[in-house]
Amino acid sequence: MSRPASHPSAAASGTASSAVSGIPNVVSIAGVDPSGGAGVLADLKTFSALGAYGCGVVAALTAQNTRAVTGVHVPPTGFLRLQIDTLFADVALHATKIGMLGNAEVTAAVADRLAHWKAANVVLDPVMAAKSGDSLLAGSAIAMMREALFPQTFLITPNLPEAGVLLERRAPDTVKEMYRAAERLRELLPLSSERWVLLKGGHLPGDEVVDLLFDGDRMVELPAPRIDTRNTHGTGCSLSSAVAALLPRTAGAHVLRPVEAAVRQARQWLLGAIAHAGELAVGSGHGPVHHFHALWRRQPDPQ
């Protein structure tokens, strides 16, 4: 099999936010969850629900359901590179969402190809564990993520345990500590251009969930009511892919703060997806969110 020509993609515009007037093309580079609640499959649902055309690159395969991860297989990095190069050589991609990468070699390969193609609107969800608690990232990949992938990242979306690992500190356990963690995370990203941190506070107790959005200058506190449900499998994947789907649109909408607008819209959509998750009946563990809650209507019961 011949490799695609090595030339920049039509969408190349660096990692800063870029706009699109039509339907944006968005790619997820992540793992596959056979239950469909997380990873590439959940990302593709999210893209579709929010009006983006979804593409997918498989960085890892998992044996997984709503209760546990029983196995992980990482394809050869040469084939991963070929997937990325073949896609970017043909499709103008307006945003890239990065999810589960598995190990340091995969992380380095993805970072290298994103740099080559000058990928725009790179949203990094630094996935380290499944909702069940099973590990999805080798410890050796953390340093590689900071060293090679952070320079390609426009917006990073860690939860509190992930923030603690990335910062090599105890995870924040108050909103006040979240402020300092968001500042430290922003310092890990390039300081010479626009980059963002969305620090998710869902692990803190209370009836309200507070996320923080920070660009190195302005800290935005984003509160939301906590929804009492077990159906939270893939919430992090879905939020980050929602932001990726919306960034190209808000950048072209002439709004005052396009990144903040994309994040607010993504969070509002996710709240609905969680609230309507009970309409689904998928598995006996942590069920998925309802990605198409605004599009699907429950069918009437047969008489």
TrEMBL record:
Gene3D superfamilies, A to Z: 3.40.1190.20
Keyword Flavoprotein in the entry? The reply is: no
**Keyword vocabulary terms for this entry:** Kinase, Transferase
Q: Which GO terms describe its molecular function?
A: hydroxymethylpyrimidine kinase activity; phosphomethylpyrimidine kinase activity
Q: In which pathway does it act?
A: Cofactor biosynthesis; thiamine diphosphate biosynthesis
Q: Enumerate the Pfam families for this protein.
A: Phos_pyr_kin
What is the E.C. number?
2.7.1.49
Q: Where is the Pyridoxamine kinase/Phosphomethylpyrimidine kinase domain?
A: 33-290
Recorded hits in InterPro entries, A to Z, give: HMP/HMP-P_kinase_dom (IPR004399), PM/HMP-P_kinase-1 (IPR013749), Ribokinase-like (IPR029056)
Protein known as: hydroxymethylpyrimidine kinase
Gene it is expressed from = thiD
